[in-house]
Write a structure and sequence with these properties.
Layout: H1 3-20, H2 24-33, H3 35-51, H4 53-62, H5 78-87, H6 90-101, E1 112-113, E2 116-117, H7 124-127, H8 132-139, H9 143-160, H10 167-177, H11 186-189, H12 191-199
Antiparallel strand pairs: 1-2
Length: 203
């Protein structure tokens, strides 16, 4: 395993093991906490599918012209992992574990398979990445799409940017209180994000 694979495997394993030991009511509480975020991600996926699916498949997946899905290029938050585990079944998770333990030599992301991304709910940094070529192609023809896109990007902060209570901070807190720590807990580890929380009076 590369250091990146190990970090990803460790966090996925921690989250999967913890959630698998939860009672149904405890798991339901976590699932309820992410409902609004999942609704947001559903709307984001619809937007991307309608307006970018064709060009992104051609430019990135087939022609390798974009930087998206690049090798070891995913910045994942701890909340991304929790959301994905809650939304995944055993088959999906086993696929991810298998990808993380095998040698990776492709120039593309280790999670990218022939059938697409192995994540059930992709990290938001992936979902919100559009290369300039794709944006120019779509937004130049329809400026209203750019307005929609800008609003979707802004809305992400409602779930991840800790200038107020946000679900990604809550998810980290749940696991920390259970004695679980991960380097991917940026909302509790990042000096910059901790300053944001301090200025907002959350710390």
């Amino acid at each position: 395993m590369t250091p990146y694979q190990r970090e990803q495997w460790d966090t996925l394993s921690l989250v999967e093991n913890y959630i698998s030991r939860q009672t149904s009511s405890e798991r339901s509480e976590l699932s309820t906490a992410i409902e609004k975020y999942l609704d947001y991600r559903h709307r984001l996926d619809i937007f991307l599918s309608l307006h970018f699916n064709e060009i992104c498949t051609r430019e990135c997946f087939q022609n390798n012209l974009s930087a998206c899905c690049s090798k070891d290029g995913i910045i994942t938050f701890f909340g991304d992992v929790v959301v994905n585990v809650l939304a995944s079944d055993e088959t999906h998770l086993n696929t991810m574990f298998n990808l993380l333990t095998r040698p990776h030599t492709s120039p593309k992301c280790l999670y990218l398979t022939t059938s697409g991304c192995a994540w059930r709910i992709r990290p938001s940094v992936c979902a919100l990445f559009l290369c300039d070529r794709a944006k120019d192609a779509v937004f130049s023809l329809n400026p209203d799409r750019k307005v929609e896109w800008d609003e979707l990007k802004r809305e992400e902060k409602d779930y991840k940017w800790p200038d107020k209570p946000v679900v990604f901070d809550y998810l980290e807190t749940v696991f920390i209180e259970a004695g679980i720590r991960s380097p991917l807990m940026y909302l509790h580890n990042s000096p910059g994000l901790l300053r944001v929380k301090k200025r907002a009076g959350i710390l």
